[in-house]
Amino acid sequence: MRKRIDVDLEEGAIRETGLTGETLWLGGRALADTILSSEVPPTCHPLGLRNILVFAPGLLAGTTLPSAGRMSVAGKSPLTGGTKESNVGGMAGTILARLGIGAVVIRGASDTPPQKVVLIGENRAELTDMPELRHLGNYEAVEILKRRFGENVVIISIGPCGEMKMAAATVAVTDTGGRPCRHAGRGGLGAVMGSKGLKAIVIDSVDVPLREVVDQGAFAEAVKEYASILRSSKRVAFWRQNGTAGLVDVSQARGSLPTRNFSSGVYEEKDHVNADRLKALVAERGGTMGHSCMKGCMVQCSNVFRDSQYRYLTSGLEYETIAMMGPNLGIGDLDTIAQIDFRCDDYGIDTIEIGATLGILTETELFRFGDSKRAIELIDGIGKGSLLGRILGQGAVTTGKVFGIVRIPAVKGQALPAHEARAIKGLGVTYATSPQGADHTAGFVSEETLSREGHTERSRNAQVNMAIVDSLGLCQLTGLRSEYSLFARLMGSLTGKTPCEQEIRQIGMAALGRERAFNLAAGIGAGQDRLPEFLRSEPLPPHNTVFDVEDDDLDRVFIE
551: number of CA atoms within 13 Å, CB side? Predict the structure, then answer.
């Protein structure tokens, strides 16, 4: 039986309980939703004592299934005011699952600034104080933790932005190289972790065996089929060769690349920031393409990027960061973008949210498109907690309110990601209706991009399937999201009880239902399932389209 670890930082107590039979098929997002909906008052303050923070590895994490070690981090969001699940790679999901842990739940708060560290190992969990970690960036904090607890530990941490409780703060997870470059980036959950007085969770990964499965033979056969699909997938081959940076050219071609604060869907200098440019710099400087953020990954979409002096900057220069800190800010230089990415990883701040925030700041005298030096100065100001930095660190909506800016690319308080809703209208439906706020990973819709019809069903199915994938711990870049029969065999041979396909779909439907019910009780109703007004009124070059999906179609997404 999987277990649950509850850490009460107010009492300084840790207790372990078994997960009930009702959670047999639940992991990741579905399990986190179940815990949140039953234990967190929807009207509580996100940074108050009654909110909790849940770390839940996917149901299939810790097994031999490739690309299946992702973890959900969840709580009430200080950015949206609603429920939030932020999905992350790295090694934490795999090792927690191998330790038999289905969820780690953090509650209460410490009476000191964030300096608490939770240690988790085989048959042990304990709390310690490390005041020397306070105010440190993720990279330095991780190095100190590894020197104390061993090079092989897996670490979950926050940087100074989480300590300062900024609404755009992230939770960092170390990758296969022990670097804190994988982030549960969206929704400000790093601030929730900081509000608890928790700086880090250290997980002992030495000699942790694979999870046991009930039917080893059947599970091995299902894994073999799954791996065969990935090996023959052109989609997976594309990610391995180009990384997610390959989406720069894809987005340019369909006119969905956010440029200069979402004023265009194409960028005239896109060849300076696309995958070909990235690969050339990586090869020239001794970096790596095809890097894995978690062991056993067959997608291998990440990269190790070095600066012009061959110094490491990031092992994950991804499309969302490139687009939001590059074309969206009129910056056509991968070196500048990588410098920003390193700082955001170290400070612990979401590159999507801050990219959008700096974009709207161009409506003031404080920033101009294309000013690389100023962009880095502003990021440093966020990480160091300057007055302006503390405003920007609260995200696009708060920044817009402070400076009286009307044109803000956000839904339910969360900034739009790097895929233009006027050029991919089905994805715009997901942005509008997802309980998570604007989030491309909540349910990507790529069919009939410029059509205004048929997206209700497309978005609904995409959101249900993505909730299932997040619950199982699968990487969404595999493209496997609706293979219910294969999922059923994996789940059945793992647990000893095989779900039917309708029961698998119900996992996703129930998760979304709980999230929407939580939001409704928190005061976030259907009236907020809308995109910003400028997306309906401003035509987007090059297709000169607006988001014209009817409100009635948005309201029908969750009628099923």
Answer: 9
